[in-house]
Amino acid sequence: MSISHGNSLVGTSGVNGDSFYISPDNTVFMLSDGASGAGKEGKVIMSKLCTETVKNNPFSSSGLSARDYLDKMIWQINNKLIEVSQSRKSLVFGTLVICVVCGDTAVIAAAGDSPAYFIRNNNAVRIAKSKKTYQNLIDLGFFSEEQLEEAVHRLPEHMWSMFDTFIPSVVPAYSYEEIKLEKGDIIVLCCDGISDNISHEFIGENIYTDNLSESVDTLINSAKEKSLKAKGYSDDLTMVVYCH
Q1: In this predicted model, what pLDDT tens digit does every residue of 160-188 receive, in sequence order?
Q2: 53 three-state secondary structure
Q3: Which band of pLDDT confidence, cut at 50, 70 and 90, is reported for residue 18?
């Protein structure tokens, strides 16, 4: 029998721009991260809009394939964010990652840099990784991914998001991955407040299905402690875990 758990902890800003959703039938898992650049109110609007849209459109009654459902959700959210941004006269934006489990198959779609990980036998790998805006420079052979990542991380931290992708966009950019699941496999969705502070290896080694809620809370608190120690502050911290 599959199990799941999610939790979210507000960062030092005091306003949580993250949101997550787990469907009652344990088939849809969503995590949204409103961008700090949208402002304290805007980031909350973004993440709540994502949650409400997915919650109000159940996969089980949609009659769609997993991939078509994910397409519909991302485009619907993207269009709503455009409307809200135009109404507010300021950009309401952020990142979104959604997983649909249908039988023994998981389909993951990610718009932006909130990562998803697949864990088997405590070995975690990133899945559905979105491309950075400089990906074309890598594809053309001008730079390696390592060279550009090193250059970006020499910039002030608040400038890193210039190279990520977000929604809304005129044509939203997002990535897919389909995974065949075996009993005991794990899917993790998390925000960059988690992934920037603890490694995917650490996540894979510290999720225990016999006490899933405690594992999630421990990982979130570990990310918070490392961020506070290294930077003096912490971002919002959110994680959703599904165990097949």
Answers
A1: 777 778 999 999 999 999 999 999 999 99
A2: helix
A3: very high
